[in-house]
Design goal:
Pfam families: GNAT_like, Hydrolase_6, Hydrolase_like. Keywords: Hydrolase. InterPro entries: GNAT-like (IPR041065), HAD-like_sf (IPR036412), HAD-SF_hydro_IA (IPR006439), HAD-SF_hydro_IIA (IPR006357), HAD_sf (IPR023214). This is HAD-superfamily hydrolase, subfamily IIA. With 338 residues, the protein is of the alpha/beta class. The protein folds into three domains: 143 residues, Rossmann fold; 110 residues, HAD superfamily/HAD-like (Rossmann fold); 56 residues, no CATH class. The protein has a six-stranded parallel beta sheet, with helices on both faces. The protein has a five-stranded parallel beta sheet with strand order 7-6-8-9-12, with helices on both faces. It is globular, with a radius of gyration of 21 Å.
Length: 338
């Protein structure tokens, strides 16, 4: 298999790594609702010595607010255990701007706080001639806010997005995310912004530096943000199947989006992870389950689509074939159930 393949662990991941960089929406909770097994699993992982740092592309909220919500969901958390895209956005601004520079903030109070704490002067209008626009999600953003961003960017301000997630999971389903709002400014200006959030690895690097971790593990539910960011930052990534991306998405993933580990939910932190191995007749085998690719089509063993180990075997077979120039036909990949 290619170097973009799955990894194995003979000990539970909570014991193999010293820091978990945990995404929020779709991993620790869904909207304002808990995700089954999240609290018990994270508390148990902490008891085994795994430090937790929650890393979110949401730039609208203060770290204290995020920590409070997690604590209410029986995941005791302090503000210094939260890293937001707002903080990463402010750090990215510091790479080019001097303290005191005027920055138009289009976003929530979390982004305002982070940009102010970084030493910049926050302004609210393009008429104040900002040198940069920091854009992050907030549920009350309006057309007028996006228009001010467009005016400033058109006048030459550096456009920095906290993240470019197109969708945002809520208790009612998926709603437009910051990437959709950023897209409106891009459509008006023709200028592509820099992005501080995942899949850029900026937040992961900042989080690892904050803690001084030696063996960090990224945990997320989206291949195109969390796990792509893990690959980009050269960190191992665990995909939990409780959010946006599915097991089928794993099988069809491009190398830059592939996870290193796959689990049904956060209980996978407390489990070992067998690595798929090549067997006879083209089969890839994992803990008694098997999959192979024949003439560009995925085949599963007789036990069918259920089970996390068949997901792992299917990924191994499909990725090996794709990396050898024999991509799998998407219509041959069923919805797999962990």
């Amino acid at each position: 298999m290619s170097t973009a393949g799955l990894l194995g662990s003979d000990v539970p991941l909570a014991e193999a790594y010293d820091l978990a960089l945990v995404d929020l929406d779709g991993v620790a909770y869904r909207g304002h609702l808990p995700i089954e097994h999240a609290s018990d699993s994270l508390v148990a992982a902490r008891s085994r010595g795994l430090r937790l740092l929650f890393v979110t592309n949401n730039a609208s909220r203060e770290p204290e607010d995020v920590a409070g919500q997690l604590t209410e969901l029986d995941i005791p958390t302090s503000a210094d255990e939260v890293m937001t895209a707002a903080q990463a956005c402010a750090a990215l601004l510091r790479t080019r701007l001097e303290p005191g520079a005027r920055v138009l903030v289009v976003g929530g109070k979390g982004l305002v706080t982070a940009v102010t704490a970084a030493g910049f002067r926050v302004v609210s209008s393009a008429d104040e001639e900002p040198v940069a626009v920091a854009q992050g999600f907030a549920p009350d953003l309006a057309w007028a806010d996006l228009a001010e961003a467009a005016y400033a960017v058109s006048a030459g301000a550096w456009h920095v997005a906290s993240n470019r997630d197109l969708s945002l999971p809520t208790a009612r389903g998926y709603a437009p995310g910051n990437g959709a709002l950023v897209g409106a400014v891009v459509a008006a200006t023709g200028v592509e912004p820099a992005s501080a959030g995942k899949p850029e690895p900026t937040m992961y690097h900042l989080a690892v530096e904050r803690v001084g971790a030696q063996r960090p593990l990224v945990i997320g539910d989206r291949l195109d943000t969390d796990l792509q960011g893990a690959r980009a930052g050269d960190y191992p990534g665990l995909h939990v199947l409780t959010g946006v991306s599915s097991a089928r998405d794993d099988v069809l993933a491009e190398p830059a989006l592939r996870p290193h580990f796959i689990g049904a939910d956060l209980r996978s932190l407390l489990e070992t992870h067998p690595v798929p191995e090549p067997g006879a007749d083209g089969w890839w085998e994992c803990a008694g389950r098997a999959a192979r690719v024949v003439d560009g089509r995925l085949e599963l063993d007789r036990e069918g689509v259920r089970g996390i180990d068949v997901v792992r075997a299917a990924c191994a077979a499909a990725w090996d074939a794709a990396d050898a120039g024999r991509p799998v036909a998407p219509d041959s990949v069923p919805e797999l159930t962990a």
